[in-house]
Amino acid sequence: MTDLRDAAIRVLIGNARGLSTVPASRLYPHQWSWDSAFIALGLRHLSPHRAQLELEALLGAQWADGRIPHIVFDPATPADAYFPGPDFWQPHRRHDRVATSGIIQPPVHALAAWETFLADPAHARRRSFLDRLYPRLQAWHRYLLNDRDLGGGGLAATVHPWESGMDNSPAWDAPLARITPVPADAYRRRDLDHAGADQRPTDDDYGRYVRLAADYRDRGYADDAAAFGFAIEDPLTNALLAVAEHAMAAIAKEVDADPQPHLERAAAVTDALTTRLWDPQAGIFLARDLVGSDTIGHHTVAGLAPLAVPGLPVADRLVATLRSDRFGLGRVAMVPSYDLTAAEYSGTRYWRGPSWFNTSWIIWRGLREHSHLRDADRLRDSMLDTVATAGFREYVDPLSGRGLGADDFSWTAALTLDLLAEQSPEGSRC
Ligand code: 9WN
Fold it and tell me: Mutation test of ligand 1: which of 15, 20, 32 has the most ligand atoms closer than 8 Å to its C-beta?
């Protein structure tokens, strides 16, 4: 285990760029939003100070409307190293200090800030870490729950597959089919320089991603519900928002603010999740398509993520789904991103089946949250075995455990450090 810890540390040091960390040096050469939150959750075991700086660097790029952009571009990296790069997003329209994208990613940040604080409270207090972050995190959650409540039901909407963090999920196939792709010869994909085309999204889907991003940009990133061709209420984003509001309640107490509004918001999001997205027959949460006005019947790991929400009333039913043949808990490497029994399942293609470390980590937290400790320990052991064999890969084939995607992937290394450190359910929690 010492070897694994040392190897994880080496990955994070190798991917550090000044005050922030890139997800993978070639494929993703800038700072990504939810990646940095997971990275901080690991870095706090190594250097709480460096973990604080990681989050501060990201929040330094927050927009005036409260959104935390999904990419903060590294000025030292050539603009064409990743597509779409800074020139595409034209962020100077809304934010002129640093170059960023204009879309968002799931809100793991308040949880990461709280757990980073807990790693060394005295040091964090000396730096006024939470005093400085609290108003920024409040603005971020306000943005999600006000500007992004496009369905009016108390949940934050996701307006681009990249915002979901699970870009190529089969759940987005039908809503994306309505979008006309930008032709492949109108831009140059950079991801295929570093990853196999058989593991990445198709050109047609990439063209649709580009179309959606360009349309949003051309509307000045205005969140006008009627204008979006793609708008989804996603259980992963909203589960993480509920978890984040619980973390905000803990942060509020620490900074002498009122925790009550955060607890109320956490309860309201949890209620909205169960009333709008829960499918009692299937025993899983579904994404809701706000343009097509219906839930989407695909069973993905996003639908299991509400397990991490404290007090979730249907937690035991979700655990039964996790153990079923659809997700194979205890029998396959980590948690697959998609239903193993579905026709569209692929063990190798990006978010259409492979197991990812961050979503498996969320499920591990959820199992502990709801006192399924034996399942949690088994999942943790299996994640550590997988990483010891496959390396710090971006994702793995759930059935063979074969490592896929980028090598030396930062959140895989960071969350390995977290799993190694958090051996008992009495560890630091909000
Ligand atoms: C687009 C960086 C990001 C992750 C996402 C993952 C992938 C980007 C891409 O990489 O998305 O944001 O180019 O495919 O899907 O979850 O944050 O690691």
Answer: 32
- How far does the centroid of ligand 1 lie from the alpha carbon of residue 372, in Å? 30
Distance CA 38, CA 108 (A): 8
Task: Determine which residue's CA is closest to atom 10 belonging to ligand 1.
Answer: 28
pLDDT band for position 150 (cuts 50, 70, 90): very high
Instruction: Please give the distance, rounded to the nearest whole angstrom, from the Cα atom of residue 373 to the centre of ligand 1.
Output: 31
Q: How confident is the model at residue 52 (pLDDT cuts 50, 70, 90)?
A: very high
Structure tokens at 6: 């040392």
pLDDT in tens, 385-399: 999 999 999 999 999
- Each residue's pLDDT tens digit, 247-257: 999 999 999 99
For the chain, what are the domain ranges? Answer: 2-423
Amino acid letter, residue 236: L
The CB of 408 under 6 Å from ligand 1? The reply is no
Distance of alpha carbon 215 from alpha carbon 218, whole angstroms? 5
Nearest CA to ligand 1 atom 8: 162
Ligand 1 pocket member 167 (CB < 6 A):
yes
Alpha helices in 255-372 (DSSP H): 260-276, 315-323, 357-369
CATH assignment, 2-423: 1.50.10.10
SS3 400: coil
Long-range CB pairs of 419-428 (<8 Å, 24+ gap) are 419/361, 419/364, 419/380, 419/383, 419/384, 420/1, 420/4, 420/5, 420/8, 420/45, 420/384, 421/45, 425/368, 425/371, 425/373, 425/376, 428/115, 428/118, 428/119
Q: Could you tell me which residues are beta bridge partners of residue 355?
A: 336, 396
Task: State whether the beta carbon of 149 lies less than 6 angstroms from ligand 1.
Answer: no
- So which residues are the catalytic ones? 167, 394
Q: Model confidence over 257-280: pLDDT tens digits?
A: 999 999 999 999 999 999 999 999
The verdict on pTM exceeding 0.85 is yes
